[in-house]
Amino acid sequence: MSTSIRATTEEESAELIKFREEWKHEVRRRREEQQAQEASTAISNQQNILPPESHTRLPTNHRTTVLDGEGKPQPARSVAGVPQQSVHTSHGHSQLSGLLTNAVEIYRSAVHQEQESNLDEALRLYRKAFRLNPDVDRAYFKEQERLQQLGRSKAGAGDRKTVSAGRTAGAEAREAHVTRAEARDKVPSTLFLPSLLAAFPEILTFEPEDERGGVPINMIPEESLLYILRSLDTTTLERFATVSRKARVLSLDSSIWRDFVYMAYKPPQIPETETVETIVDRYNANYRRTYIEHPRLRLDGVYIAVCHYVRRGLSENAWINISHLITYHRYLRFYPDGRVLSLLANEEYQPSHGFYIGDWRMEGSVVQISNLCEMHTSVNAASTHSHNHIPQPRPSAPSRFGRWNKLDLVSYESVNIEDGEVVPLPLKHERPFWFSKVTSWQGYC
């Protein structure tokens, strides 16, 4: 009995050893095929970048140092058996390694497909690019910045050939505006979203809450869903995007955010000399990022500032000091046609003075309010006051990114209409304006 059991155990162990050896051989063969395929892909990409005479000079297994624009060494990735080349980003020249170049090109194609509303193809290309290199998004944006700097330098060189040494004040003003815009746009970009989309599965559907039930919305074509989403406002759209992955991908369609950008950014929200296309180019042609990050005024509500100050009162007793806390409100209502209503009111008394009508326009990130004329509610006509008040608030979004629900008062000036004398007014009691939405008011027309 023991002899038969021992024989059976030896047969099983021999069969297990044989299976293990075959499995190791199969794994080794597949690994060699994968390395050979990656090596051939990298070599073909380098042949498109390097000059022909440099192909024979590269060793078969060589690791080079990657230098950034300041000449500091950066860690470089290398593949066994695949030659790599140095990467220099100074003086407008950039040569990426083979795999990274291929990944950047695929990422660029994915961005183009996303702008053309081909979301399925964009997701496939994003996933492919991140498989080749997990840092392809950073390399892509660095390459875009390098190309933009190279284009600006070429444009500046062409202008210097045609423009004389004495530059006009208008040219200097335009250069100063570009410099301020570049400094303002150096904010951390949202690079998390492309990497998140790359982790999504290729086929996306709306999942039912109960697995036994169906989802009728899956029967609606994506074109019809996008047409419905274009009729929503941004708040409702972002709430819909939190439902599922499919909803998030649909909410990122560029046609939806293109409508929001073109409705929001037009004079007086932007200068007359600036176009929407130039603004969108600053954010890598991303309409959603433009709408979130570029400064703007909200027109579907009122900006309200609650201000306080302490006033000393009168007392019959010399040993008792009486102080009164005075609260007043400032209201600003902006209209799409460039008009602005300003009201200074107190909670206890109906406002008979302090109501102004003027004009507004955006200059960079500052709102310029001018020609404020006081209106009397009794006669409904402009007063004969000889001064104009010019407040200059600055919009910001402190609570949530992209809401633009706060105005900080930068300066407040009084201009004498007769002689043009400008007198700055103190702002020691002023507080920021906070936005309050009015449901029945339309933000854009």
Short overview:
The protein is of the alpha+beta class and 445 residues long. It has helices at residues 2-49, 98-115, 119-132, 136-162, 169-184, 192-198, 222-229, 234-241, 245-251, 254-264, 276-282, 287-293, and strands at 66-67, 73-74, 301-312, 323-334, 339-346, 355-363, 366-376, 381-382, 387-396, 406-416, 422-424, 433-437. Strands 3, 4, 5, 6, 7, 8, 9, 10, 11 and 12 form a ten-stranded antiparallel sheet that branches. A two-stranded antiparallel ribbon has the order 1-2.
Radius of gyration: 32 Å
Tell me the structural class: alpha+beta
Largest pleated sheet: 10 strands, antiparallel
User: How many helix segments?
Assistant: 12
Task: Give a count of the beta strands, DSSP E runs of length 2 or more.
Answer: 12
Report the portion of residues in β strands.
15-25%
Roughly how much helix do the residues carry, as a percent range? 40-55%
Shape: elongated
Average pLDDT rating: 75
Uncertain runs: 49-93, 159-171, 177-190, 377-385
Distance between the termini: 95 Å
